[in-house]
Specification:
Layout: H1 2-18, E1 23-26, H2 29-36, E2 44-47, E3 52-56, E4 74-77, H3 85-95, E5 100-103, H4 110-119, E6 124-127, H5 131-136, H6 141-162, H7 171-184, E7 189-190, E8 195-198, E9 219-224, E10 226-228, E11 231-232, E12 235-240, H8 247-265, H9 273-286, E13 298-300, E14 307-311, E15 324-327, E16 330-333, E17 337-340, E18 343-346, E19 356-357
Parallel strand pairs: 1-5, 3-4, 5-6
Antiparallel strand pairs: 1-2, 2-3, 7-10, 8-9, 9-12, 10-11, 13-14, 15-18, 16-17, 18-19
Helix pairs in contact: 3-4, 6-7, 8-9
Length: 368
């Protein structure tokens, strides 16, 4: 992987050089990991004039192989307690003869920015905006493999939960059990806080589990994700508790399923992000649920669970091949509940079979 990280750093350096900066300071943890292979607590990466340096407050924990920094980087571990790796990296840049340093202004706090200026007054600080985030959008096959394994883990954890007795258990208990199962099956941990929503809570985006207990006749919406080697995937499903769903539950579920399928089928290299959103949204709009819809239909995933691109009505840009995204339309009806169906897919050209579905748990409306 060392050559992969080297290529990524070269691409960023070329962008910085084109804007007049001879070096860059990367501080956002996901970006540090993307460029160096690891991101120990509060570490920063200096793309220097003469060498690249990973600056850490303490030595990295190298007991886990995939958490070890790229061996091609020089590792600079600070001495003493309480120092700021970003300030230390700026001083190292000055020592390398750097005169212009590009920083992630969207991540640095004002206090940290001021401290860098005070510690390294010769430096002219410029911004690199979201340059690293833009590089991260298109994934290589190694990254996609990590997402695929994470999706398999999430599918397995969800499938096991569905085989257990659910009535009488609380949302909070079920969420904790899912997160334990993720780790048991090899995940680094959950990709985000697991959402379990029952009855009137079902279908709410980002619902925080409560002590409400599962009851017969409830909709049960579950949204979870696994982190594997730093990469995060997402899956969401809705089920009915009891022997048979009510007519209104079947109707609502079929509608959301149709919207989700329309969004999935519109994923293709060159497709406008807003058109993917529109494909899913218009199915629900036409049925009169415009006021009950979430602000987005999906988003990118990777080292963070919410990355570019975003599939929204106002989204700019088009999709590329090898971009993993979620498609997650839903409808929430206050006081009654709702439906959310959420998959992680990778954009692929039609010649390669079209979008690759990573999360494969059935989307049939199951009565549990």
């Amino acid at each position: 992987m060392s050559e992969v990280y080297a290529v990524r750093r070269t691409r960023l350096r070329e962008r910085c050089n084109a804007s007049g900066s001879t070096a860059a300071l990367v501080s956002r943890p996901a970006n540090v990991r993307y460029l160096s292979g690891a991101a120990p607590g509060n570490a920063v990466l200096l793309l220097g004039r003469t060498e690249d340096v990973l600056v850490c407050a303490q030595p990295p924990d190298d007991r886990v192989p995939h958490n070890r920094p790229d061996e091609a980087l020089r590792l600079h571990v600070m001495t003493g307690i309480g120092g700021d790796p970003a300030v230390e990296a700026a001083a190292l840049a000055v020592a390398q003869g750097v005169d212009a340093l590009a920083v992630e202004e969207h991540h640095l706090t004002v206090t940290r920015h001021r401290a860098i200026r005070e510690a390294a007054p010769p430096l002219r600080l410029t911004g690199i905006a979201g340059a690293v985030e833009q590089l991260r959008v298109v994934k290589d096959e190694e990254e996609i493999s990590c997402l695929r394994i994470g999706a398999e883990i999430a599918d397995q954890a969800l499938g096991e939960l569905l085989e257990s007795i659910l009535v009488g258990r609380t949302e909070r208990h079920l969420a904790l059990e899912l997160e334990r199962r993720l780790v048991d099956h090899g995940a680094d941990g959950p990709a985000f806080s697991t959402s379990v929503a029952t009855g009137p809570n079902a279908g709410r985006p980002g619902h925080r589990p409560t002590d409400r207990r599962v009851e017969e006749g409830d909709f049960l919406s579950v949204c979870l994700g696994a982190t594997y080697r730093g990469y995060r995937c997402e899956i969401g499903r809705t089920f009915v508790i009891g022997t048979a769903p009510a007519d209104w539950q079947i109707e609502l579920y079929d509608l959301v399923f149709s919207a989700q399928r329309a969004g999935r089928e519109s994923l293709a290299p060159g497709a406008a992000c807003r058109d993917v959103d529109r494909a899913a949204r218009q199915v629900l709009d036409s049925a009169g649920y415009a006021e009950a819809l979430p602000v987005l239909t999906g988003h990118g995933v990777g080292l963070e669970i919410d990355e570019d691109p975003h599939l929204t009505p106002a989204a700019m840009g088009k999709l590329d091949a090898c971009v993993p995204v979620t498609v997650e339309p839903g409808v929430h009806l206050p006081g009654r509940g709702g439906v959310r169906i959420d998959d992680t897919l990778v954009v692929r050209p039609e010649a390669d079979g079209g979008p690759e579905l990573l999360t494969i748990t059935t989307k049939e409306l199951l009565a549990l």
